[in-house]
Design a protein that fits this description.
Layout: E1 2-9, E2 14-21, E3 31-34, E4 38-43, H1 49-60, H2 65-75, E5 83-88, E6 93-97, E7 106-110, E8 113-117, H3 125-136, H4 142-155, E9 165-171, E10 178-182, H5 188-201, H6 203-210
Antiparallel strand pairs: 1-2, 1-8, 2-9, 3-4, 4-5, 5-6, 7-8, 9-10
Helix pairs in contact: 1-2, 3-4, 4-5
Length: 221
């Protein structure tokens, strides 16, 4: 029902999560991010938000990502209906796709990049999403590259029901949150892209962001 990416930029420690689905309001359920610690996606036939939250909490306590995923999967009696992935602050990721998820349901894991989806239109959606992100990231910022990847996935077929909601989270340790959501739109990824562009071009809002406190500049105003 959903296609998603988790990305990590090692030099800055920035995490990004982007996702889209054929239903409404996925932004409150699928993407999870804890700056300086990790990021997670939880999706599938029966999404388990608590597993993503528990996973990030355990990463913060120093557990290894593979051990956490193995434990969460074993403890969850509904694991066969879930698709869950977790990435740590080194860009190492792990996850699972339960057998009861509607095909096409797959996950691809690389160094600092994970793509996953279920109820996909075809098996080319994830490779196209992965390739588009990697190519775009060579020339644009992470948020823009993540949206480009979602757009390419949709053009390849995406969720076979269509796409009604989309979300994006990007954050570096000590930095400001970049958190966008389209909870319902007939062209949700287009709406997300337009919102992103509007924010980048809004000089008043950019000035507002530039005076907010960060870990490096805690007393800005």
């Amino acid at each position: 029902m959903t296609y998603s990416l988790i990305a990590f930029d090692k030099p800055s420690g920035t995490f990004g999560v982007a996702c889209a689905t054929g239903g409404p309001a996925l932004g409150g359920f699928v993407p999870h991010l804890l700056p300086g610690v990790g990021a997670a996606i939880t999706q599938g036939f029966s999404t388990n938000v608590f597993s993503a939250e528990q996973g990030l909490d355990r990463l913060a306590k120093g557990e290894k990502v593979a051990d956490i995923i193995s434990s969460l999967q074993q403890q969850d009696k509904g694991a066969a209906w879930r698709q869950l992935a977790l990435m740590d602050r080194y860009g190492v990721a792990a996850g699972w796709t339960g057998d009861e998820n509607v095909p096409v349901a797959e996950m691809r894991i690389g160094d600092g990049l994970l793509v996953a989806g279920n109820m996909l239109a075809n098996r080319e959606v994830l490779p196209v999403m992965e390739a588009t992100y990697l190519k775009a990231r060579q020339r644009v910022d992470m948020a823009t590259a993540l949206i480009a990847a979602l757009s390419a996935a949709q053009e390849q077929g995406g969720d076979h029901r269509g796409t009604l909601s989309a979300a994006l989270k990007v954050r570096a340790p000590g930095g400001l949150p970049y958190d966008l959501r389209i909870d319902y739109a007939t062209s949700a990824i287009t709406a997300l892209s337009e919102l992103h562009q509007r924010i980048q071009q809004d000089s008043d809002f950019q000035a507002f962001l530039s005076r907010l406190p960060t870990a490096d500049y805690p007393h800005r105003y």
